[in-house]
Design a protein that fits this description.
It contains 14 helices and no strands. By secondary structure, the protein is mainly alpha-helical. The longest helix has 19 residues.
């Protein structure tokens, strides 16, 4: 019984698949990576991103470039939300996709990913104007939700809140179109937009965005706790304390549980 449980454990499946990949046995690696992904909890964005990146490597090795591209497109938002755009996990996947495009003869699109990598590096060093320029050049070649999110964060830091809001809305629209309206990663886009709108004092929109984001996530996940903390900070910034704050939290919780028409 224990052996059977271990055999279907995502980490075990991923490790076995990685071993076959390292041996060049892609035919055995592919179904194991697929099974590992299917066994992951939906809200585990970090491991989804890592495993999609692994599966993309198999497709790339097999010359199935369109399938590899689709896996990288899934992986990058998940890795960015879980580990950050400055993380080795995100940068590794972005570099892998750039290499894929070069192999596929898409040098211009590869340049877009290279520009994003460079933007992350200069942003880390505090050179925001340079990072902004690089992201704009990348988006002019290929639009991407993560790039728009990064640009929105830079604009917010610079105090350019109108531009930040425009980029955050574009990122959210792309997440929704690509992943569906209720995907956990859409919650990341909702949280980002809510944070930008707070800075613009667009209060009527902020609370519904936070509440919708929370409704997509498992309360045990770090993403849920982060967004809940952001919502609580928003309430406190509006002067809600003590019993008033608790009443507002209860209304928010009830809104999350209330079924929509047709449910």
């Amino acid at each position: 019984m224990l052996a059977a449980a271990l055999a279907s454990d995502p980490e075990t499946l991923n490790a076995r698949a990685a071993q076959y990949y390292s041996q060049g046995n892609y035919a055995k690696a592919e179904p194991l990576f697929l099974e590992a992904i299917s066994e992951l909890p939906a809200e585990d964005a970090g491991r989804h991103g890592l495993y999609w990146n692994n599966l993309a490597a198999v497709y790339r090795a097999l010359g199935r470039y369109s399938e590899a591209d689709a896996m990288y497109s899934n992986a990058l938002p998940a890795l960015a939300s879980s580990f950050g755009v400055d993380s080795a996990e995100y940068r590794n996947a972005l570099g892998n996709r750039a290499e894929l495009y070069l192999r596929d003869g898409k040098a211009a699109v590869a340049e877009a990913d290279a520009l994003q990598l460079l933007a992350a590096a200069v942003r880390f060093r505090g050179r925001l104007d340079e990072a902004e320029s690089l992201l704009k050049r990348s988006l002019a070649i290929r639009e991407g939700a993560v790039a728009y999110t990064n640009l929105a964060e830079i604009y917010s830091t610079q105090g350019k809140f109108t531009e930040a809001g425009r980029c955050a809305r574009r990122a959210l629209a792309m997440y929704e179109k690509t992943l569906g309206l209720n995907h956990p990663l859409v919650a990341v886009g909702l949280n980002g937009l809510a944070q930008v709108l707070r800075q613009q004092s667009a209060d009527l929109e902020v609370e519904p965005l936070f509440i919708r984001a929370l409704g997509m996530l498992d309360p045990k996940t770090p993403e849920y706790q982060l967004i809940l903390a952001n919502l609580n900070n928003y309430y406190k910034s509006r002067g809600l304390h003590g019993s008033a704050l608790e009443a507002r939290r209860e209304r928010s919780t009830n809104a999350l549980k209330r079924p929509s028409l047709g449910d």
